[in-house]
Amino acid sequence: MRNKSIAVVMLILLISVLTACGAETPTATPAASEPTATTASATEPTATTAQAGEATATTAETGEATATSGSGAATGGGKTYALVPKNLGNPYFDTANKGAQEAAKELGVTVNYTGPSTADATQQIQLINSLIAQGVNGLAISADDSDALVPAGKAALDAKIPVVSWDSQIAQGGRTVHVNQAVSEDIGRTEVQLLAKLIGSKGKIAILSATSTAPNQNEWIKWMKDELTKPEYKDMQLVATVYGDDQDEKSYTEAQGLMTSYPDLAGIISPTTVGIAASARAVTDANKIGKVIVTGLGTPNQMRAYVKSGASPAFELWNPSDLGYLSIYTLDAIASGKIKGSPGDSFKAGKLGDYKVDNDGVVLLGKPTVFDKDNIDKFDF
Ligand code: RAM
Fold first, then answer.
1. What confidence category does residue 77 fall into, taking pLDDT thresholds of 50, 70 and 90?
2. Going by CATH, does the domain composed of 65-181+320-365 fall within 3.30.70.260?
3. CB 3.0-4.6 Å disulfide test: which of 75, 166, 268, 345 passes with 339?
4. If you measure from the C-alpha of residue 2 to the centroid of ligand 1, how many angstroms do you get, rounded to a whole number?
């Protein structure tokens, strides 16, 4: 009995000592500075988030970025925009996001990078509807389908959420402005001109595209076909157009299929950064360097080895980072009321300078660069 009383007293003492020391169950606190990971599913659009507020603020009147030092500086109205690529996991879009985050920092806004796992319009529409429900302050979308996205874009506009498309356009009615990387006709024609130069304007050629609904690729292919009707290409024969869906493995298999179906194939034009790299790899693996020439649109970092090996001696592209940067400046100019986005409106896009909305509601980035062995090492994206 006595022993029992001593044990109870000791227990009470122990509890009071622990309480006095403030012993607490540790709680996990996520580091605020760590960005959350990109989503794989279109319906759960949590995304990579870069906080703009750490070093810049925007003055309401001029919209010019004013540097304020230290963390926790005020953000410019705290607007949150979504940058939606055709699909996640594509280095081209990751580079565009870098430029978008740079713009966000300068403007004092937050840009969430979120997209479907595959380049699929249905997934993208679900995501856009979910972003509208979340009440984002603006959407910048690279469209997986031009017409199919119009109702979702219109729903956003009806909810007073500005929409710009960039890279791959939503048809009129589903967006205010389209930010175009270069003149579509020029891209289509120069792709054919590049290949003609590389194969002596002779032989069977094929196009390996992204998805069959991709608005930008379909527009460029239209101009490629138009260019091919000119007399100087009479000895060049377009034998097939195939689709790798902007998936590396599918694009690789399609390129292999082209070489099997057409053993004397002379060239492939792939107007997609995913397709061109996969095609050059397939040509390399098939020991066909010099026999099948690959060109199209690619990123220097993905294509460097193929330029040097001769699998793809020359190709072209604009700077995707600048495209992402310009897209966010354009969206912010509309969302903050600096412009309506109507034809003739002009605005300043930070380091890129002045831009104007043309009569078709398009803002044009500029001319692409042709990359070859002489300049490829100067670029890192
Ligand atoms: C892929 C995408 C993108 C296109 C580039 C060239 O990354 O299809 O939309 O602009 O290629």
1. low
2. no
3. 345
4. 83
pLDDT, residue 34, reads 29
- pLDDT tens, position by position, 313-325: 999 999 999 999 9
- Which CATH number applies to 184-317: 2.60.120.260, 3.40.50.2300, 1.10.1060.10, 3.30.160.100? 3.40.50.2300
Q: Rounded to the nearest whole angstrom, what is the distance from the C-alpha of residue 140 to the centroid of ligand 1?
A: 15
Pocket test for ligand 1, best of 86, 219, 295 (most atoms within 8 A of CB): 86
Distances (CA, A) of 268 to 94, 233, 234, 238, 297: 25, 15, 17, 10, 11
Instruction: Using the predicted structure, report yes or no on whether residue 25 has a pLDDT greater than 70.
Output: no
Residues with C-beta less than 6 Å from any ligand 1 atom? 86, 90, 92, 142, 167-168, 210, 214, 216, 246, 272-274, 297
Residue closest by Cα to atom 8 of ligand 1: 272
Pick the residue whose CA is nearest to atom 4 on ligand 1. Answer: 272
| pLDDT-derived band at 328, boundaries 50, 70, 90 | very high
